[in-house]
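Supplementary Note 3. Input sequence used for the single-chain structure prediction.
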Amino acid sequence: QVQLVESGGGLVQFGGSLRLSCAASGSISSIKTMGWYRQAPGKQRDLVATITSGGSTNYADSVKGRFTISRDNAKNTVYLQMNSLKPEDAAVYYCFARIVRYTMENNYWGQGTQVTVSS
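The predicted structure, written as discrete structure tokens, is reproduced below.
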């Protein structure tokens, strides 16, 4: 079994910063892409950022220059540093990981962590 556990969400003021973490555990052979999505009330879940096992990153236009994704492969952990937060960044943030277990690959998701930005 595989589990993704997120932490670091909370309430922050406009212009503030938060750092999200997501650790994968369980029977893992390797982890390919990891990343973050977010979902605001009444909206679809949107991509925020991804990072490959080699460190290549991709960002949504709305967060470029403000958010930084990184990962620690030794710890099976992905991070999202969020700076200059805006009210429109408020959402539930979900991490995901493309995980290889033995010969099978699947996407796994965390339970979500709430980010609230006060104006």
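The chain has no helices and eleven strands. The chain has a mean pLDDT of 97.
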